[in-house]
Every structure is written in C-alpha cells, then in structure tokens.
Queue: 2 jobs
Job 1
Amino acid sequence: MELILIFLSAALVNNFVLAYFLGICPFIGVSNKLSSAFPMGLATTFVMVLTAIVTWLIYHLILVPYHVEYLEYVSFILVVAALVQFVEMVIKKVSQPLYRALGIFLPLITTNCAILGLALFIVLKDYSFVESLFFGVGAGTGFTLAISIMAGIREELDLADIPKSFRGAPITLIVAGLLALAFMGFAGMITV
Amino acid sequence: MKTIVAMLVTLSLIGVVSGGGLAMLSSWADPLIAANKKADTERAIFLVQPSAKSYEKVEKVAFELYRVFDETKNPLGYALPWEGNGFQGKVRMMVGVSADLNTITAIEVLDQVETPGLGTKVTEEPFRKQFQGLVAVPQVDWVKGVPPTKENEIQTITGATISSKAIVGIVNDGLAHLRKDMAQGGAQ
Amino acid sequence: MKKQVSLSKEYAKGLWDQNPVFKQVLGMCPTLAVTVSAMNGIAMALATTFVLVFSSFIISLIRKLIPSQVRIASYIVIIATFVTIVDLVMRAQFPDLSKALGPYIPLIVVNCVILGRQEAFAAKNNPLRSVLDALGMGTGFMLALASLGGIREIIGSRTLLGMQVLPDAFEPWLVMILPAGAFLTLGLMMGFLNSLVERRKRRDEAAVLAQHMRTPAAAMLEGQEG
C-alpha cells in the first residue's frame, strides 16, 4: 500500500514538473508535438528507473560505508551521464526502430534536472531500495503525463490567435501554470 | 592510444583534485553542520518546554526522545520529535508533554510542505496556542467550526481542516507510542 | 578569428541582450522553484554565480589541456565540485538559507546556464573574458530571479525582502506563492518584456526609415510612435 502511495504521490500530487519544477527544459523544449513528447517521456522514465536503482546502490553500498557522502553530487551526475550514454549504446545495438524513436532525445536527458533531482530526493527521503524503484517509476510516469498533456494543448494552441510577443516560451509557461493549478486538485487525495 | 591515455590522465587528475579538495572542506564543515542540527533540536525542545532549564536524550527507547528538567534537576516532562502525513507531505514536529504524559506543554512544527497561506497556518501562533496546557487523555480531539467545549479539544482552522487534523493525528500517534513504551518501562 | 568585443561588453551582454532567463530560456528549474521571495531568488542567484564564475575560470585555464572527447565529463565534475563546496559552506554557515533553498542547491549542477557557458564561452576564451562573461550571466540571472521573486513576494505575501509593503487591506494572492504562480508570473513577464522589445524595435525601424527616405508613410509612423 505504501508503495502504491509513493508511486501516485510522485506521479500526480507532487508531480516533478508541475510541483517541483524539475525537467522544465525538455518540458518547454520538446513539448510542441505529441509524437515527440510521448517518446521523450518514455525515454526519461526509462533512465529515471535505472538512475533510481544505480544511485541507490552507489549511495548505500559505496558512499555511506566509506563516509564519503560529500562526493554525492559528483558521483551522481557522472552516473547519470554514463548511464545515458550506456542506454544509448544498448538501444542502438538491440533495436534500431527504438533507437530511431528515442535516440535523439537521449543526450538531452543528461541535463534534465529531473533525473538528478530524483537521485537527490531518494537520498533526502531515505527511501528503501524497493521504494526508490516505485518512486522512479512514479516520477517518470508523472513527467510523461505532464509533457504529453502539454504537447496536446500546444498542438491546439498552434491554431489559436496568440499575441505575437507571447508566442513560444511565454504562452507555454502560462499554460503550464494553469496545468499546475489543475494538478493541485490531486493534493490531499493521496498523502505520503 | 595517446588520446586515450590523455583522456584517462585528465579525468583522473580532475577527480583526484576535486575529491581531495572536497575531503578537506568536508572535514571543516561536518562538525559545524552537526552543531547546527543540534542547535535546531535544542531550540525546539526549549520552545515546547518553556519552563525547562536543561535536557538529556533518553537512550533506552527506539525513537528520539528528550527528558527535560527544571533548575533543581526535577524532571518536568518530555520533548518528543514525531512525524506523520500532512496534506501534501511529511510533517515533522516537536511535542512537549508533562512527566505523567497527561498534559501537552506546547507543540512546534519543524518541517512541513503544506499549502502556503492555508495549511501553513498550523505552524502559526493562534493554532499552536490551543495546544498549550491541553489535556491529552484519552487523546486529543478536534472540533470543526465551533469553539472547543472539552479540555482535550482544539478547533481546526477553516480552509486547513486536513492539515489541522494531521497535526492532531501526529500528536496522538507520538503520545501513544510514548505511553506504550512507558508501560513497558522502557523510558524510565 | 572572431572579432574581439570590448571587455565591458563581455560583461554587459548577460544583463539583457543574452539574459539567461528572459532571452535564452535557460536555468528554468531554480528560476521557478525558489522565487517565492526576493531574498531566496537573490541567494540562489549568488550561489549560481559563484559556481559559474569559478568553473568558468578553472575551465578556461585548463581548456587547452582537456581532450575534447572528455570535455563534458570534465566540466561536469568541476561544476559538481564547486556546487558541493557551496552546499557544504551554506549548510555550515547559513543553515536557514540552506533549508529554504533545499534540494535546489545541488541542482545547480544541472543548471543548463552553467554547462552552456562552459561549452559556448569558457572553452574558447581566456580566463579574464570567461570570468567577465560568467559575472555578466550571473548578474543577468540575479536580475531575473530577484524581479520574479520580488513580484511574487509582494503580491503573494504583501512583503518585499521581509518588510510589509502592501496594506493589510490587500488580500494576498495565494496563487502567487504556489507553483502555478511561478509559471504564470514568468510567462506574463516574458510576454510583457517581449512586447516592450517589439515596440522599441518598431520605433527604431521607423526612425531609420524616416531618416533615410522621408516617405510619407515613415513620417506618419514616426509621428505615431513619438
């Protein structure tokens, strides 16, 4: 039960994009078409789950036993960068169609603060291994959900008559604000 | 081959310099950070036990607990850090309670992520004041919309009912654990 | 060899022309997350500027020694080191501020402004210019964060830098200090600034037109704008 709550909380109530402002760069950059936003969400979710596993292991099996917690940021960011590179290589080898679908998004993921944010939150909230896993899946789902909804709205926005100076980033931010308001409706439904 | 060596050498050099520098800095910062944490706890203890003059950590219990004393070293009661679920996330608080565990001296919210302006009102004076001298047996109760009539009741905040109830819940939960431990003679 | 611009311009371009937040739309996470008050915004910008200036200086110093294949990895390690320094110092000396900024201090590591400046500037320029560029970007970042934080603080909690500026009769707009308020305020600010720029550009164009060929249309435009 606790695990399902962690998942739902990360996906809806404390949505990474709309409540913690993590992963805003791709959220604004890659959200103009649903056909690219959804794969981006999937790729991010995939990397998030891997990151949750690997950083949990590194923190609890290396950093804590040897009392080098101050290397947390340095090691986490290196892990994320290496992981993204590794995933890119594996996908390229294993499945060409998948690589064509996700390939161009993978390098972008390294500088996605949602990934590093996830690793830091796992340490901060002192999650167990299984909890971290659920947290990672939940955060990824939340990101996919937010970026897909955003892309759907922006496809409609293309047809709207927006003042010239508000086109692009400004209107995207305003729509994100309204989305954040809508997501607030989930608060209080689930508490973790 | 040459570039690979150069790559490895550069990366390891940067790694060693950065690791070494951070190790030195952390040996300076760690004691200070620990001291800050201790000062925070200490401040919270004296906030929830205003008449206390000194305190000590109770070692025999499974959770964090502090016993507080007056100037002649008579035990006054306890300060109990406890946490639970609020409206949007974890709420961490410090509960002050008399030695017989029947009366609350005061409460203090240490960490919370409640809705700013609504849920955060539970951290403010008017709400917290209701807990000063509140009777905590059999447990703390809440009423909504009307002033409390019994001496173990508090009134929830309009617009922050869930947060108010959460605070009551955390207080009751913490005290229940403390009482159970006392009954087994753990905290004596 | 690209044309060298003056040192003062190297600094000033970050303030407005290439403002990291308003113009380049970079570093959005901290911009939106910590700006519930002007003080938080300023503190965050100071921490970011510190990391930016020192990373730029170091990377510019050793730029010729780093093999290009591992440059990004090297940059990241250097940036993460300085972020850890900031984090440790803040937790040791300014615990309250560190609590307010929470996990957003470590997230400076992935602030795209910093990595972006290393790749786009420090890797190609000498230390003096890199530091000036970093200071300029940092100042621009601070302008953005302080103004956003200031607006949200005034309307959201009636205060500025902790002092009450609006009367009690003004009911604070809670939405401003909620996440949604961050998105809305920044979106409106960017749109408003864009429209100012548009208007000035049009006026400049009209002025140029009017000077060079005194056509009736241009004269009319000039009259309108004047």
Job 2
Amino acid sequence: MTLFGYRVPMMASLLVWCVVWEIVGRLDLIFLLPPFSDVLAAAFNLVQTSSWQSATVTTLRAFATGMALSIVIGVPLGVLMGRVKIADDLLGMWVNIFSSAPLSAIVPVLMILFGFGEKTIVAAVFLFAIWIIVLDTRAGVRHISPSLIEMARSYGASRPALYTKIILWAALPEILAGIRLGLIRGVKGVVIGQLLVAIVGYGALFETFSRNFRMAEFWALTIILFAFALLIAELIERAEAKVEYYAGARQ
Amino acid sequence: MGATALRNGPSPVPAPIDSIVEVRGISKTYGNVEALRGIDLDFPRGKLTSLLGPSGCGKTTLLKIIAGLIRADGGTVAINGKRVSAPGPERAFVFQDFALMPWATVTRNVAFGLELRGTNKAEREETARRYIAEVGLAGFEDKYPHELSGGMRQRVGLARALSVDADVLLLDEPFSAVDEQNRRKFQEDLIRLRTNQNKTFIFVTHSIEEAVYISDRIVLLSPRPGRVSQIIEPEIDRSGDPERIHRDRHYLDTVDEIWQGLKQYVE
C-alpha cells in the first residue's frame, strides 16, 4: 500500500482500524463496543489474573494434545492413502466429508462421549484439525515423482527406508502446509469446544464476560486468541519457507 | 557394410564370449499393448551396449526389467550367471530425470546408495567425494540439486551410480533432459570414463548419433511389439580426441546405415 508516494507498512492499516475503533467506542453508540484503549487496559489487567492464567494453561494443554494427536495419526493416514489404493478408496470419501462438514454440530455429541471436561476439548481440536492434514499429506505423497521411488528401490532401499528417507521428505512441503491449516482449524476447535462445554478454560471466561456484559474483557480475550492463532500460523509458515526451495524443484 | 559387423534377424544371437547380462525370452504386455516379445540378448562384459529404437519399442521397459524395477511377464534375466528378478547391488541405475533428492546435498545424493547399504558416514562421504571429482563436480559437494544445471545434476546421478561399485551401469536416456552443448561434453566424458572404469554399460537412447558415438555395440529394437531387429558393432577408434569421432568415416557410415534401417518405422 502506498499513500502520497510513501510506502506504508502492512501493520499501518491495522493501526487505522484501531483508531476507528477508538473513535466509535468513545462516541458511545453501542455499549457492545467499548473504546479500544479500554480493551487494551482490560487485556493488560486480564493477563495478570490467575483465572486467565489457569484458563490459558488448560486451553494450551488441550490444544497441544489435540494437535499432536491429529499430526501423529493424520500424517501416517495421509501417507497410507497416498500409497495404497484400497485405503484411499475406503477412507477418501469420509475424509472429504469430514473436512468440509460443519463440525461444530458434532461437538455436543463429543460431550456425551467424553464428558464435560478437557477430553471433549481435545477431541474437538483433533476432529477439526486432522482432516486437512490427512488430505494435504495424501496430496504430497501422490505428487512424489515415481522415478524418486524407483531410485530408492534400485539402490536397495528397504520398505522402512523408502518411507523415512524418501516419501516423508518428498512430501514434506505439503505435510507442513496441511499442519499449518490444521493448526488454524484446531484453534477453532478449541474455542468452539470450550464455548459449548462452557466450564473449561477460555470458554468459561467468555461465558462469564459475555453474561455479565464485561465487553472490554470479552474483546481483550478475543484479541489475545486471534493473536495466538496468527502467531502459530506465522511460525509454521517460516518453517514452510525453509522447505519451499524444493517444493518447486521437484517435478 | 565393411565398417560394421552385422547380424540380422530376431533369432537368438550367438552368445559372445563372457557376457555379464543374459536376457532370455523376455516378454511384457501392458494391457493389450505388447511392449516386448521374446527378447534374447547378451551383454558382453566391459562393453557399452546401446538399446536404440523409435519411441514405443520398449527399450526403457527392457532396461527397467534388467534393473529389476519392472517385472517381466515371461523370460529370465541373469547377471553373472545368476537369475535376478529384483534390484541388486551388482546393478546401478541412472535416471532420465536424474531422480535426485532435492532436500539433500550433492554429497548425500551421491552417497545415498552406500547410505542404504549401511556404510558408515565418514567412509561413504569419502567415496562420494572421490566420484564427485571423477565426474567433474569437485567444489560442488555441499550444493543442492536446485543450485545445479541440468547437465550437472545428471553428473550427480552418474556419480551416485558409480559410487556403489556395481558391475553393470544401466542408463535410461541420461542425456535427453540435458541441453545440446552439455550433452556433447557429457558424451565425451562418458567415453573417457569407460576407459577408466572397468564396467559394463547398458545405455538406452533414441539418438542414432549418440548411440554410434559412444557404443561398442548397438541393439536395434523394432516397435510394436518390441523385438531385436539388428545388432551392430561399430568399429570406431575412440582412443584419440573424442572430437574427431564426429568426422570419422566409419561413424558417419554407421549412422547412415542405421537411419536407413529405422526409416520404415517413422511415419
């Protein structure tokens, strides 16, 4: 973006919107929208409370567990579907359905299965994140040049060596892209799960703030969550950039 | 014919003394396309034999059957008298599209065959360095494939095949993805390499000039179904300057002769 011939950095537009928020908030048009400075102050206070800290620990733990599970199960499943036609025929339909289905509708069922606790949240993260990881891994494995596999075979690669030394590496750019998208979906999963269960972590906080019309804190929590989601997406993107050079180099 | 020794017909060729690869009655069908029918061939030890023919004659299929990468429908392949049906350490393959690992350095790519065999790191890197120098890539050990030109990438592929110390090198149109200048240079290097390395080369190409230029023996395959139509042994002196071969009378005669034979398959 350029303004009067000057290059304006990307963050500047964010600043403009903060100013707009501040002005609208100060005009006191809708009580749902307190001034941005109030939100910032609320955020500053919020992070010092023990309720926020323990909610964050709970949320992060559920998120990390759910993500770890979906990566550990999703990547091998995607590799399997990419390599074995029968597995692809059997599972392909379901993976595609789940990856585009409105999964929020299933969360109440998870509550019945796993109870009103952290297990449900972990299951929600897992359910939101895994499908795109499976699909991207599968696409990456499908993309591997057949001659690279023939090369490994002709030089005597055992089956495990073929997978660990060739297939996983050759599909790595797609696997990482899948994990990045999975992380973003996982954030949705953790928030929706907690909101529906409403007595765990951020869900409990959101519930408290909105029920008591503590809008500044409500927004502060939302912003913290958004910032967190953007941050992890950014981190994975950096890792992706490191393997990008060979995503294009493969034919 | 004078300059060349000719043997005609698809009938079994009298076995030359000391053949390292013996192909007997190999046939292969893809769906309802018969790619190869009853191939009998012997590849003499220490020689460079080219499989030459128009596209669709099954030359790459035959090479991959010898490599153990494709299973034949019938017939046998024997290396050093032993029947084989899977890849083995006595054969090394050079791929048309190089088949390098883009995430690995030149050294690791060259050493990959040894890595799969469990050779320890120091030893295999030492061997790799020697062959990287042998193919003229000294100084590029730590580069990645995407930093190299097509010609250099294929040199990496060749060094990888040399480093496993196989008796037979199988080359599948190795220069077809390399630009013309590099190809000429590469062909000259291959002639030089053959005199240094005591190995048997089986070389697939669709270029008549290339086949005549580098081969001790040329197997002409006819298409649909692929069959041996002729075996030619160009008697060209390759001891001197490789540049001179292109103007050699025997070279030019042989190229012309093969072209006359292949013409009928070109629409």
